[in-house]
Amino acid sequence: MEGAYNRVLSARQNAPHETYVYFMDLLAKTVRDEIAGCSEKAYDYLSINDARQMLLFSSDQELLEYVKEEHPEWEVKNRSVFFQKAKEPTPYKEIPSLQLINQTLSYARELERIV
Is the pTM for the entire model greater than 0.85? Predict the structure, then answer.
């Protein structure tokens, strides 16, 4: 919750018993998935080194396996990880401003009559 994700991995190495390792691995995967989702929204692409550090992997090969298994829509080329090919802008809705102005003026007239 505080964003200290590196503490999750260090806690894995300091597990009091080997049975905890399974749960710490699940927790580490959850942390990686959360970071990956945020990175995907925040960046168009990251270098492999930056992505590896951000996703808490110890080698480039682990990162590439993670991308292949968990995020096949990501593209790896030129020593970079490209997230979504084309982020489409969210379509905007037209605000019916004339209608809103008329309603607001109508409400103001009604309020004036009441007072």
Answer: no
